[in-house]
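User: Working on a comparison across species. This one is Peptidase T4 from Paracoccus salipaludis. Can you predict its structure so I can line it up against the others?
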Amino acid sequence: MRPGPLNLITDVEGLRVGNAGDARLKSGVTVLTAEAPFACGVHVMGGAPGTRETDLLAPDRLVQAVDALVLSGGSAFGLGAAEGVMAGLRAAGRGFAVGAARVPIVPAAILFDLLNGGDKGWEDSPYPALGRRALESAGTRFDLGTAGAGTGAMTARWKGGLGSASAVMEDGATVGALVAVNALGSVTAPSGQFWAAPWEMGAEFGGLGLGGPFDPGDEPVPQKRQGEATTIAIVATDAGLDKAGLTRMAVGAHDGLARAILPSHTPFDGDLVFALSTGRRPADPFRLGHAAACVLARAVARAVFEATPAPGDLQPCWRDQR
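Assistant: Here's the predicted structure for Peptidase T4 from Paracoccus salipaludis:
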């Protein structure tokens, strides 16, 4: 495998990603959409998820394609970002046709960033407007680190952020990942090296490698309370998979979180992975799950690697400590 041209999830042809954030709020929204509706599955492994429309993604449900996916800060308030995305898509004539009406299908997942030092004293929720702005900014290039849904993210040790990565497989299929890292666990070993180092391509998050050995005592003790964490992600491919196949791909992709964040999938995290397909080429489901896990692990490390400081931060940036 090799990285795609942008090393972003948008290396999967047809996908676009947009960010919107508020520095004073220390929160934001990331939206993924595409030129046409796409098949999507989901799998949740964390104990404290916050979601919208995920039941619709089960293989036996009626709707077979969605118009956009939303990753948002704001805890439960952030689910309102999907309202702004729906409004923008409806204005563009997108949505599931029900008679003369069209209903955009926009599943969403949120992370908890309400105690990160930002000003949360709003009267009207800012998230619908942030969702609309993120949709309207969607393109093939987008910022990583302190951007979008990763604006106010934190981890056990470092400031979190938004990450992305891609890989082109030997058969020509492309796999990409997009992740907002706000984990209870740590993405680095005590040395500061990224746990995801064995899967790094080039020097995309520093090229430091990974020493060892490490023992269970190296894993951090919880520093957040229940509901204050969550890593939410999207993996994507141009290989053709139906909702059942995508659900299995999402399950496999969770291995990437476990490789890059220690510990992961705790009772206090709401870890979730969406998986989508644009269906433009034949699929090899066996290899796609492994590729998605590798790419997601890299995206997690890039999220923290690319984070930048902002006034009022409660945690240091990884780059500032090197």
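For your comparison, note: The longest helix spans residues 285-305.

User: Helpful, thanks.
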